[in-house]
Amino acid sequence: MVLPSVRIGSGVPAGDEQDRRFMHRSPNNLVYRTVVILWITLTSASVILSGLAWSDLAKSLTAAREAVEIRDELDEILRLLLDVETAQRGFAITGDETFLDPFHAAEKQLPSRFEVFLERAKPDLNWFKAAVDLRAKAEVMLTFHREAVEVRRHQGVGEAARLVATRRGKRAMDEVRVAIHRLRLLKGGGLVREGLTPHSQLRRASLTSLAAGGLGVCAGIYAFWLARIMLGHQERERKLVEAKLEAERSSREKTVFLANMSHEIRTPMNAILGFSELLAGEVKDTRHREFLQAIRTSAGSLLQLINDILDMSKIEAGVMELRLEPTDPREICDFLHTMFGQHAAKKGVRLECVVAEDLPRALLMDRVRLRQTLVNLVGNAVKFTDQGSIWVRVQWEKQEDSSHITLLIEVEDTGVGIPAEKLEAIFRPFVQAGAHRDKEKTGTGLGLSIVQRLTNMMGGTVTVASVPGKGSAFSLRFKDLPVSVRLAQGEKLDGAPEVVDFETLRPSTLLVVDDNEANCQLVLGMFAGTSHKLEVSLNGEDAVEMCRTLMPDVILMDVRMPGMGGRETLAEIRKIPGMELRPVIAVTASSLLSDDADLKQRFSGYVRKPFSKHDLFVELAQFIPLRQATAEGGAFVLAGGGADAPDPAKASPVPQELLAALAELEIGEWPGLRDRMAINEIRGFAARLIGLGQQWECSVLVEYAETLDQGAAAYAVSEVEQHLSAFPALTSRLREASA
Q: Is 7's pLDDT higher than 50?
């Protein structure tokens, strides 16, 4: 068919006057002309879109080829890192240097591999950032394994095993795998999907182009519609990526801000609470004691506010960890009564805690988080109840599995109640019910949100029922809680006064290193009137020089100091002859989990600001011996090597063969016995120790093992647990005796 010549957009035919008159006479001619113009337009668009499709296909093929090359490069990097991990493990187990050949080969190849990889990643900013992140995580992993190799070489398999047990290597390898997986996702779009080869894609593209040209209008409309969808999808993806990056950046900034805020507030808070504790024993005037109590109460409230904000941040970031341990809910109820009973009594409110008599004595759960949850609930109940009573009821239900139960805890009050429309909203952060404004001014609205998050983390649920003006009832339900064979350890009540006497520790020389003079004066005040000698240094440089001349027994080291910080100061102190093994206790206000792990790894001990005399005493008691050895409850207790304390291990030489056998038992069998507390297994363990002691004529070991066996035979669980826990201290003293 011959088409008339038209001028696109003019609406006037290019033919002669006869044609013009014909079109004028035929009304349908205008419609035909419009259809032809539309057909040509859409066909042209189809051709253009087909060309774009071919161009995209070429890019897709190029991307697929690059993706395959990237995948191979990532596989090679992962293989080298796995070689490093495998080689280190082989060397740690055998001590054979030949196992390290793949380790050294990987160390040589990885830098060049990463250089090539980063060069390839430069055109794509997101990819380049991910590649840099992978290299950083790989370097962290290599650093750990280098450290493990050095520990194995110089300190032996025991120290190497303890280092591996920190799981730093596993966490580093997991982060490397996540980084590699992310890189694969970023560049995985170029790979051919659904089993199609590039040739089949080309064939399909050709058929699509021919069909588009033949169908014309349909192809153009479809292509236009598809292009709109793709553009919309790409725009949404771009916005999602930007939002994700912004959220990650905001999260990092928030974490840093909260950490800095916590440190800056905790440091002066340490002085406020510490000096208030010291003044409590000095102030006699009743009015002044009330002022002092107001200071301590306000400081405690501020510290609780900081802790709530940090806990919420950790929960949202997914870094809050649960520490399961044998827990007796009765102890927590006693703590709640001690903490809130007096306050409730002053308001004329009755506080009662009722626990089922047959409730198991030890449930495996996070005691600290359960207590924190109930403190929030009971604290709210006391605050919003002016008359009547508050009941804490603890019940339980049996399950088919006799070793698991369902724990039910209810906190009921006769307070102001919560409006029905607020029952769901109160569990959101910073939301308050608004039923009692004058009381809510003292809160942040975080307590119930933390209650819900912690309960969910522990595998439980929380529900609430309330009637305004009559009271509220919060119910916690924890299913499938294991019943522990070990008894709960028990704990000191935070609200109860604790008598601390530093004179029970052997007189020692302590060096306090802190750039904050108030904190130094606080520690000096805690030791006032004791036989201990304390010296103060306000910076790291002076501390190093004082260590050279003073040679202190213990060092209390602030971590964040201007100039030379605590970590750098520790490194310099370790270089001083005779100070390589002296206890250095980190004193910090940091709240970051990463800081906790790092400080516990570097330093001998760890104390967080603000700390009390009891906190400091507990930490120092791990490094300063008591004045004499004691024996309590028939259990063998190693109190230290004071001048007057007998050291039975020195009565005769301790053979190295015996020390090696004890070290193997301490690493391999003892941890399981300590956790399971199986009586028959403990008696078998004691029999092996008696055999070793008799074989090598070590009377101290025989005496220890016989006492352990006698306690196990009598099923004296608490004494056996205490006695069994002293085994590492016994082996340590025996090693010291052989030195």
A: no
Mean of all residue pLDDT scores within the chain:
75
| Check whether domain 631-738 has CATH 2.40.50, yes or no | no
Fill in the DSSP letter of residue 490: -
CATH class of the 502-620 domain in this structure: alpha beta
Q: What is the pLDDT of residue 41?
A: 67
Report the percent of the chain where pLDDT is more than 70.
70
**Ordered strands of the 605-608 beta sheet:** 533-537, 509-513, 554-558, 584-588, 605-608
Other residues' Cβ atoms within 10 Å of the Cβ of residue 452:
19
User: Residue range 276-300: average pLDDT?
Assistant: 76
List helix spans (H) across 593-678.
Answer: 593-602, 613-620, 656-668, 670-676
Angle value at C-alpha 306, between 515 and 589, nearest 5 degrees:
25
> Could you tell me the residue ranges of all domains in the chain?
59-190, 257-317, 325-482, 502-620, 631-738
Q: How far, in Å, CA of 84 to CA of 104, rounded? A: 8
d(CA 656, CA 257): 53
Over residues 175-197, the pLDDT tens digits come to 888 888 887 777 654 444 433 44
Residue 729 CA to residue 76 CA, distance in Å, equals 47
- Distance from C-alpha of 691 to C-alpha of 658, rounded to nearest angstrom: 11
CATH 1.20.1070 correct for 59-190: no
Q: Which token pair is 644?
A: 């007057």
Q: How many CB atoms lie within 10 A of CB 29?
A: 15
Q: How many CB atoms lie within 10 A of CB 97?
A: 12
Find all residues with CB under 8 Å of 724, minimum gap 6, and list them.
Answer: 670, 673, 674, 677, 682, 708
Q: Is 599 left (phi over 0), alpha (psi -120 to 50) or beta?
A: alpha
Using the Cα atoms of residue 28, residue 33, residue 37 and residue 43 in order, give the sign of their dihedral: positive
Reduced to 3 states (helix: H, G, I; strand: E, B; else coil), residue 403 is coil
Helices (H), 281-386: 286-317, 329-346, 367-383
Q: Model pTM?
A: 0.40
- Residue-wise pLDDT for 405-447, tens only, equals 999 999 999 998 888 877 777 777 655 555 454 544 445 567 7
Q: Which residue has the tokens 């003019």?
A: 10
Residue 271 to residue 525: CA distance in whole angstroms: 11
pLDDT on residue 634: 38
Which residues is 364 bridged to in the sheet? 326
Q: How many CB atoms lie within 10 A of CB 501?
A: 9
* Range name among 19-33, 206-220, 616-630 with the lowest pLDDT average: 19-33
Residues 549, 528: contact at Cβ < 8 Å? no
Whats the size of the chain, residue-wise?
Answer: 739
CATH assignment, 325-482: 3.30.565.10
First to last CA, the chain: 109
